[in-house]
Write a structure and sequence with these properties.
The structure is a single chain. Helix content is 49%, strand content 6%. With 304 residues, the chain is mainly alpha-helical. The chain has a domain at 1-92. The strands form 3 sheets. A two-stranded parallel sheet has the order 1-4. The chain has a two-stranded antiparallel sheet with strand order 2-3. Strands 5-6 form a two-stranded parallel sheet. Helix 7 packs across helix 8 (140-161). It is globular and about 65 Å long.
Length: 304
């Protein structure tokens, strides 16, 4: 929707900004200059960057010389180069994992603003439990534990930035009233309204990397309905999810079915929270081990 605006370019998900940041010393020279060509060469080795389909000659032309600057300046130049290649003046980024990186991204880019799209945990948890890939979960409560961690962190960090830099959009509202929510969003972004953002599905699939089109097939259809979690979620799962996410759901304006959880619901919720904590610890250990063992290329490893 945002990328359909004639002035705004949104490339495929990056994920590499925070990963590359830890390696920024590789490009910052002792004389205070920044090695833009080296940054561009190593960027091309990252799988997520290759999804952008930015011609090598375009990238290397923009990053042709060493000069004054910083890691943040290099990333700004990258996004400016991409936007220019799309004939646009402004740029943004849509990377779900960055919801847990807002503090770091704010430190790197003091000018950054954030739009946080929030979907009802009861729908999210159901969807995650149906996914067999590594980013799915085995149970509905486990999916809720992931939601509480990520959405809760984004909500807290965003509110701390204030309304000039942080906007929350409920997914359900975006589906039911797309023009109203998009007008609010573009006001926040200080961009003029354009009806093209409502017709995004006509070009949406061409903006999705070829390897991701199966899982993102729905972008070619306008959103017309939200999942009916009430008819699909098992009562015991609903009770556990609300026991875990109830306070945050209420704070975000969602109505609870069972405001007072049972002891069994609390126990299942606690079990899912422990699973998520263990999952995060293991993922961090794997990331550290891979970097030590293989000398992992900058930006490849991402840790929650």
């Amino acid at each position: 929707m945002l990328d359909a605006h004639p002035s705004l370019a949104i490339p495929p998900e990056s994920y590499f900004i925070t990963g590359l940041y830890r390696f920024r010393g590789r490009y910052e020279r002792r004389d205070g200059t920044f090695d833009y060509p080296k940054f561009a060469r190593e960027l091309q080795g990252l799988r997520k960057y290759r999804d952008w389909d930015l011609p090598e000659e375009t990238l290397m032309g923009a990053f042709a010389s060493v000069g004054p600057g910083s890691f943040a300046d290099a990333v700004r130049l990258l996004y400016t180069t991409y936007a220019t290649s799309q004939g646009k003046k402004r740029y943004g980024d849509k990377t779900p994992g960055y919801v847990a990186r807002m503090k770091l991204l704010t430190e790197i880019f003091p000018e950054a603003s954030f739009v946080h799209i929030i979907r009802d945990v009861r729908s999210v948890a159901l969807s995650l439990s149906e996914i067999t890939d590594e980013w799915g979960t085995a149970t509905v409560p486990q999916g809720a534990a992931r939601w509480v961690h990520r959405v809760g962190r984004g909500h807290r960090d965003g509110l701390a930035l204030g309304p000039q830099r942080y906007l929350e959009v409920r997914y359900e509202d975006l589906v039911e009233q797309p023009e109203r929510e998009l007008r609010r969003l573009f006001d926040f972004a200080e961009l003029p309204w354009d009806d093209a953002v409502l017709d995004y599905e006509d070009r949406a699939m061409s903006r999705i990397p070829e390897g991701s089109r199966t899982i993102h097939a729905n972008v070619s259809r306008p959103p017309t309905e939200v999942r009916d979690w009430r008819a699909q979620i098992a009562p015991e799962d609903l009770a556990a999810v609300e026991a875990m996410a109830g306070p945050l759901l209420s704070e975000l304006g969602y109505e609870l079915v069972a405001p007072t959880p049972s002891a069994d619901a609390k126990a299942r919720a606690d079990e899912a929270v422990r699973w998520w904590a263990t999952y995060l610890k293991r993922k961090k250990r794997r990331g550290r081990f891979r970097r030590r063992l293989t000398g992992l290329r900058p930006g490849v490893s991402q840790v929650e």
